Amino acid sequence: METTLLEEGEITSASDAEILKVSSLADGVNFIEIEDEETGHSSGVFVYNYHYGDKKTGTIENLKASTDKEKYDIGDIAKIKYTASIGSKALVTIEKDGKIIKEYWKTLTSTENEETIVIEKDFFPNAYVSISVFPKVC
Fold this sequence. Notes:
138 residues, three-stranded antiparallel beta sheet
């Protein structure tokens, strides 16, 4: 897989959400990353740009993840669902202020997976959960 920077820019946000306008996407998998230059925190999303019917679904490149809610309060249980190949390893990390405050590894025994995370006081005001999936190597 080859990585090419297609576009770079700057946005400024306040209390209202900002719409990110992307003018050029390559065919295939695109990764859009936003970085806070003050804190160094970054977040990203994969965008799949294929003509209808061009790409097989269910491959590791088409990793899908979702949460059960938009926002959580202290004591809530966050449920994060994601797909991955059986036998893959998942690294789950919780980050706040540029530091990893919790982490664990998990061997995946299903293609449909769920992490349940109790929301703790230390997670506020903003903590981020990342799930990195590493496919099983034959």
